[in-house]
């Protein structure tokens, strides 16, 4: 016992630390809580199935429109500069036009007209205000126009010049009607707008072509007159190259000027229209576009492009040309990106401040003003280069200089006329064949898909969630439960565990009468074997020559089973041939008399008050060598009575009569009775109950007993331990070898 005392002393002088968890501990935890885990899992699955069955199917209809970038009147395919106003903003502009007040109003009117052709209008959700058995009330045109902003989603499709219109809801037919109607309205609007633009362009080109035809005729006549007057004059190669370059840039400048005049005409028309509701709008937009940062970017782009044209003008090597073009394109691309970012910020701010029905007009003014600014910058850059060439021409001899000017003018008019003629013929063809900038690629008929519910995902989520909630319940329950669970837990805390007592409910035959005196009722049961093991370990817990004569059985808190342990332990000592007396010293809530079905009095308190003789309170039992004394009449002062000299003399007298005295006492924490008895008996057994005794209370009691007299503390026993549901092979084998033969056979048959 000295070694055990030393171990207990070392451990209980340290701070208690939580024991480390093993995998088997978690598996045991799951097995212990298997029923609630299964129940929570089943409820989760049931809720998931009900949710899936009641979730309405959601469809999505998508219509895709291809958007062609609009070209300038005299656009050149390799003109990077002209792409500035027609870059990635084109798709954004088209989206804003699709969302415009006018388009939504036309779509709303068309949808309401189409409701007449729907077979089952009662199944509609998005286009109606209310549905009853008798009538369907559709939305008004104004309500539907406003609602289209939320029910139709318009997005740019990545990597292609296309826009998708999508709508989601519960009725596939309704969604098809909405997306296809919206697409058709915009395609028709784009077609009419494009035809009007082409007609205006054709008329403008026709006038400009005739002017340039006259200019070309006049310049040719002037050249012929000069040659007749001055005679035969030959220009050298350098002069010819100078004339060629100058005439080319003259033609390009004139082209830009024609573009500018056309754009200014369009811009003036838009300004007049906007003046009816906001006279300051156009000036405000022009002021924004005149910002120095935008002007600087436009000039840099124009300079790079003109320099590129100069460098490649007289180069015949195609690879060198491609290298120059790619290098310039990389630089211009970066500038265009910066310009577009700035312009997009301006455009978004402008549209945010513009009434819904006027956004389309504001956007057109913004784009036209931006394009005019870009053309003006290009004209300025070209004019600067032309002036440099003109200064070179003035260095020629007088006759050569005049001839050079006449040839330059004629070539410029010739190139410009050819360009105008080509564009005029192209406009004529487009007027007859082109149907607009928007083309429907994928109508909604083939793109209606079911997007919700994803039943497989929902079922999987419900399954995982149910399992998670079940396991969470088990772990939270275990975390909040601060009670003692197993003998190992007691040993890890440093307590001396003498034995453990199995749960009666699991090990007693269900057909036998319920009783707490197990060693008498079922002497071969595993419960009885557990008490016998406890008896043996108590006998060998002391190595001194003086045998253990008196033993106190106490507990930490009530209802831990100390009385059951006292009764059955006393029975085991008696069955071992020792004359044993069970003494009920729980003078507050005695129970021993109930187990033996006897009256409580006369008993201990009656004898100590000299009301009865000793032989009157000693009562025999059915087990040989076992007697017991009840508590008797409950006194008003139990602590004083147990601490009296009469009680000590009484114990000494009983020691002479019996080999073993087993004393049942009140819980240690509740009152001081057990502490008084602890100091006058030979050994103490502390009872705790699995899944009930708080760890903190047990540690406090064990430390207190150990501090008072470590030699007197025999150890502890874990009562009502349910090993079958939670803890491993050791306990199950113990249970198996302590079972009767018939139950062993049943266990074997289940293996």
Cα(first) to Cα(last) distance is 41 Å
Continuous helix count = 28
**Biggest beta sheet attributes:** 8 strands, mixed
Mean pLDDT: 82
Fold and architecture overview:
With 751 residues, the chain is of the alpha/beta class. It has two domains: 300 residues, P-loop containing nucleotide triphosphate hydrolases (Rossmann fold); 385 residues, no CATH class. It is built from 28 helices and 15 strands. The strands form three sheets. An eight-stranded mixed β-sheet has the order 8-15-14-9-13-10-12-11, sandwiched between helices. Strands 1, 4, 5, 6 and 7 form a five-stranded antiparallel β-sheet that branches. Strands 2-3 form a two-stranded antiparallel ribbon. Strand 4 and strand 5 form a beta hairpin.
Which key phrases capture this entry?
751 residues; single chain; 5-stranded antiparallel β-sheet; 2 domains; alpha/beta; disordered N terminus; disordered C terminus; elongated; Rossmann fold; 8-stranded mixed β-sheet
Question: What is this structure's SSE topology?
Answer:
Blueprint: H1 2-12, H2 23-32, H3 34-54, E1 58-67, H4 89-98, H5 101-114, E2 128-131, E3 136-138, H6 141-151, E4 153-157, E5 162-169, H7 172-230, H8 237-274, H9 281-289, H10 292-313, H11 318-352, H12 359-393, H13 398-433, E6 438-442, E7 449-452, H14 455-480, H15 487-492, E8 497-502, H16 504-507, H17 518-521, H18 526-539, E9 550-555, H19 562-575, E10 580-584, H20 592-595, H21 604-608, H22 614-617, E11 619-620, E12 626-629, H23 638-642, H24 645-657, E13 660-664, H25 673-678, E14 683-689, H26 695-708, E15 713-721, H27 729-737, H28 741-750
């Amino acid at each position: 016992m000295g070694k055990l005392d030393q171990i207990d002393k070392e451990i209980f002088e340290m701070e208690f630390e939580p024991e480390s968890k093993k995998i088997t501990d978690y598996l045991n935890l799951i097995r212990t809580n298997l029923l609630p885990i299964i129940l929570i899992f089943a409820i989760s699955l049931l809720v998931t199935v009900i949710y899936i069955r009641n979730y309405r199917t959601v469809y999505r209809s998508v219509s895709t429109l291809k958007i062609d970038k609009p070209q300038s009147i005299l656009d050149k395919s390799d003109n990077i500069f002209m792409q500035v106003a027609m870059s990635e903003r084109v798709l954004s502009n088209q989206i804003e036009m699709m969302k415009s007040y006018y388009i939504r109003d036309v779509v709303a009117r068309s949808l309401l007209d189409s409701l007449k052709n729907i077979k089952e209008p009662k199944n509609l959700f998005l286009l109606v205000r209310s549905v009853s058995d008798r009538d369907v009330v559709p939305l008004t045109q104004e309500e539907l126009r406003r609602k289209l902003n939320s029910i139709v989603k318009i997005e740019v499709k990545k990597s292609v010049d296309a826009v998708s219109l999508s709508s989601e809801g519960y009725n596939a037919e309704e969604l098809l009607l909405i997306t296809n109607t919206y697409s058709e309205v915009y395609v028709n609007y784009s077609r009419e707008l494009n035809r009007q633009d082409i007609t205006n362009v054709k008329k403008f080109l026709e006038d400009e072509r005739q002017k340039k035809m006259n200019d070309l005729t006049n310049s040719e006549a002037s050249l012929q007159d000069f040659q007749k007057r001055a005679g035969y004059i030959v220009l050298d190669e350098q002069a010819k190259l100078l004339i060629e370059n100058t005439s080319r840039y003259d033609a390009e400048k004139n082209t830009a000027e024609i573009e500018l005049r056309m754009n200014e005409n369009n811009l003036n028309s838009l300004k007049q229209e906007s003046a009816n509701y906001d006279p300051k709008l156009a000036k405000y937009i022009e002021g924004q576009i005149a910002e120095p940062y935008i002007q600087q970017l436009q000039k840099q782009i124009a300079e790079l492009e003109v320099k590129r044209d100069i460098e490649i003008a007289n180069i015949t090597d195609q690879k060198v040309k491609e290298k120059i073009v790619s290098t310039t394109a990389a630089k211009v691309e970066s500038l265009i990106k910066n310009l577009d970012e700035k312009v997009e910020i301006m455009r978004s701010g402008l549209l945010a401040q513009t009434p819904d029905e006027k956004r389309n007009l504001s956007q057109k003014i913004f784009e036209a003003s931006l394009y005019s600014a870009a053309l003006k910058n290009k004209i300025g850059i070209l004019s600067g280069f032309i002036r440099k060439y003109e200064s070179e021409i003035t260095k020629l001899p007088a006759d050569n200089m005049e001839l050079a000017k006449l040839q330059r003018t004629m070539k410029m008019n010739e190139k410009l006329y050819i360009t105008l003629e080509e564009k005029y013929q192209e406009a004529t063809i487009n007027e007859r064949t082109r149907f607009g900038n928007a083309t429907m690629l994928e109508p909604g008929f083939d793109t209606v898909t079911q997007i919700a519910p994803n039943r497989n995902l929902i079922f999987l989520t419900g399954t995982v969630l149910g399992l998670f909630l079940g396991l969470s319940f088990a772990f939270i329950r275990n975390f909040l439960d601060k009670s003692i669970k197993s003998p190992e837990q007691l040993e890890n805390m440093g307590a001396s565990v003498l034995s453990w007592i199995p749960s009666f409910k699991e090990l007693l035959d269900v057909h036998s009468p319920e009783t707490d005196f197990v060693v008498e009722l079922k002497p071969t049961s595993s419960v009885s074997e557990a008490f016998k093991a406890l008896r043996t370990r108590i006998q060998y817990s002391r190595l001194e020559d003086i045998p253990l004569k008196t033993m106190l059985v106490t507990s930490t808190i009530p209802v831990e089973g100390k009385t059951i342990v006292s009764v059955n332990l006393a029975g085991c000592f008696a069955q071992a041939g020792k004359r044993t007396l069970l003494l009920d010293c729980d003078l507050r809530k005695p129970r021993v008399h109930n187990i033996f079905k006897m009256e409580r009095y006369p008993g201990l308190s009656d004898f100590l008050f000299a009301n009865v003789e000793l032989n009157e309170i000693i009562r025999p039992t059915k087990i040989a060598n076992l007697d017991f004394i009840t508590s008797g009449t409950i006194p008003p002062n139990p602590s004083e009575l147990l601490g009296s000299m009469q009680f000590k003399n009484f114990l000494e007298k009983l020691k002479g009569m019996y080999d073993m005295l087993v004393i049942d006492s009140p819980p240690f924490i509740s009152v001081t009775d057990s502490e008084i008895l602890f100091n006058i008996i030979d050994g103490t057994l502390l009872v705790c109950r699995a899944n009930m005794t708080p760890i903190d209370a047990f540690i406090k009691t064990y430390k207190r007993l150990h501090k008072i007299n470590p030699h007197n503390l025999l150890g502890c026993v874990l009562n009502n331990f349910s090993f079958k549901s939670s803890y491993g092979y050791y306990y199950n084998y113990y249970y198996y070898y302590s079972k009767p033969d018939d139950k062993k056979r049943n266990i074997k048959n289940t293996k």
